[in-house]
Amino acid sequence: MTVETILKLKGREVETITASVSVTEAVTRLAAKRIGALVVVDAGYAVEGILSERDIVRAIGKSGSGILADPVSSIMTREVEACGENETINDVMARMTRGRFRHLPVVEHNRLVGLISIGDVVKSRIEEVEHEAEEMRAYIATG
Q1: CA-to-CA distance for 125 and 129, rounded, in angstroms?
Q2: What are phi and psi of 64, to 5 degrees?
Q3: Measured at the alpha carbon of residue 88, what is the angle toward residues 83 and 89, in degrees to the nearest 5?
Q4: How far apart are CA 98 and CA 76, in angstroms?
Q5: Angstrom distance (rounded) from CA 62 to CA 123
Q6: Which domain, by its residues, includes 115?
Q7: Tally of domains in the chain
Q8: Which of 79, 117, 112 is nearest to 101 (CA)?
Q9: What is the mean pLDDT of each run of 10 residues along the chain (143 residues)?
């Protein structure tokens, strides 16, 4: 199973933001959408960074609530790992676990085309294992 399979099931819509928007506006959007991260993109939809709840909490812990007026660019994670649609679920699950991040932008030709979360990956993997188990039961029953 590949990342493309996840995107076909969940859709390709991604909540994005620009680097110049205030952290307050980003927090408001995260809360309103009930999501954990926003992908920071430029006008061409190239990924410039990612802003997660974790980034916000760390920034407030370090510098206080004054950072809420600052632009997203001041606290976003700039070194963003991304994946392609053809990568396997097992590969991206390993990368996300090793890197200790929960959101992975999907990029094709330097353009954001989707976003997967660790929850999406785990759900897909569980469905895959359940399908394999069902096939095995069916095979045994016919033997």
Answers
A1: 6
A2: 90, 175
A3: 95
A4: 20
A5: 35
A6: 3-142
A7: 1
A8: 117
A9: 92 95 97 96 95 96 96 96 94 93 94 94 85 84 79
For CA atoms 93, 94, 97, 103, the dihedral sign is negative
What whole-number distance in Å separates Cα of residue 111 and Cα of residue 46?
5
The alpha carbon of residue 51 and the mean position of all alpha carbons in its chain are separated, in whole angstroms, by: 10
Type of residue numbered 36: G
pTM, entire model:
0.85
Position of tokens 């895959």? 128
Give the count of beta carbons closer than 10 Å to the beta carbon of residue 117.
Answer: 18
Q: What is the CATH number of the domain that holds 106?
A: 3.10.580.10
Name the burial class of residue 109, with classes exposed (0-12), middle (13-18) and buried (19+) by CB atoms within 10 angstroms of its CB. Answer: exposed
3-state secondary structure of 103: strand
